[in-house]
Amino acid sequence: MQDLETKQDLDLRLGALISEHQHMPGALMPLLHAIQDNIGYVPESSYSQIGKALSLSVAEVHGVVTFYHHFRTHKPGRHVMQICRAESCQSMGSEALEAHAKKCLNVDYHQTTSDDAITLEAVYCLGNCALSPAVMMDEEVYGRVSAEDLDALIAEARA
User: Fold this and answer.
1) Residue pair 83/94 in contact by the 8 Å Cβ criterion
2) C-alpha to C-alpha distance for 157 and 87, rounded to whole angstroms
3) Residue 89 known to bind ligand
4) Predicted confidence band at 70 (pLDDT cuts at 50, 70, 90)?
């Protein structure tokens, strides 16, 4: 994921990704993943371009993007923190961890801190059930995360 400098740069990247995926069967999901992987989010301004290329309505593209919690519609912070909300993690205290994170960061899910350091997201399984509760910061998964561990992750991300 790289920062985009201009709307023209964004349009060029989107155009290239759409061209690469538009002829695939069932292209929408792979295309949305490619856009988010490359740009960091799926801009709402891209829905029309995506829809036209895939013969879908803007509403259909919007419906898929908003249905799946994985997709972001706004640029994320420098770091993305995901807190697992699956049953195993909930049984081991992730709801309290989630409340602690929201209070410390002063954001809700799908929001970014005022300093643009951290975007908080829910995730519904990190595959780390034996070490619940689990948190992922960027691409690194942490297990048996306590409030103190979470505070340390937040401090490191803000440093």
Assistant:
1) yes
2) 27
3) yes
4) confident
Domains contained in the chain, number: 2
Q: Annotation-wise, does 84 bind a ligand?
A: yes
pLDDT (average), residues 130-146: 97
Asked whether residue 55 is domain-assigned, the answer is yes
User: Over 8-63, what HEC string results?
Assistant: HHHHHHHHHHHHHHCCCCCCHHHHHHHHHHHHCCCCHHHHHHHHHHHCCCHHHHHH
Is there a single domain that holds both residue 86 and residue 63?
no
Q: What is the mean pLDDT of residues 125-137?
A: 97
Q: Hey, which bits of 57-139 come out as E strands?
A: 79-84, 111-112, 118-123, 135-137
| Same domain assignment for residues 53 and 124 | no
User: Does the annotation flag 129 for ligand binding?
Assistant: yes
